[in-house]
């Protein structure tokens, strides 16, 4: 089950990935009121209650893995809700082939776009998918007008494999050969994996 990552923190230089919990929902819900984000993520606005239900399904579904993206400069230190910049997801939707993961990244905070946050968050998620979930093929489906995102995935060695003119989306794909795996590990060799429960504890609480 996807509870595999419920105590996992992946700490990179710019971003830190933490499990998506109920505490993140209000901020996430606020983001998703943005028409621009609804368009870019092809999603409908949900009520706050529906958003909490979604968060629960993300936590419990065996075919989804999600992390909230935090700004490494702000967390730990600031409240998580104030450090949130977006989210990154993996869907294991191919029943024929469990080694295929569809990856999605959203940097929702406008001030954090174009700063390499999305790229690092995507790399962290890919390496997690390869090492922990046995993923050997990644796919990304991106709206045709989202050029920044398409460009970023191409920098991460994804190749365009299909264009769907009805949904106006481009499918990009990356097969993780030994060479690609090596490259991914090199790109993320600075990453630390930590326990979420331990990091959330304020310093000193554990000494009593």
From TrEMBL:
Q: What is its EC number?
A: 2.3.1.308
Q: Which key words are in the record?
A: Acyltransferase, Transferase
Q: Does the keyword Acyltransferase apply?
A: yes
- One short Pfam family name for this protein? Acetyltransf_3
Write down the species: Molothrus ater (Brown-headed cowbird)
Q: What is the uppermost EC class here?
A: transferase
Q: Report the Gene3D superfamilies cross-referenced here.
A: 3.40.630.30
Give the encoding gene's name.
Answer: Nat9
Q: Which InterPro entries match?
A: Acyl_CoA_acyltransferase, GNAT_dom, NAT9-like
Identify this protein by name.
Answer: Alpha/beta-tubulin-N-acetyltransferase 9
- Residue ranges constituting the N-acetyltransferase domain according to the UniProt record: 15-159
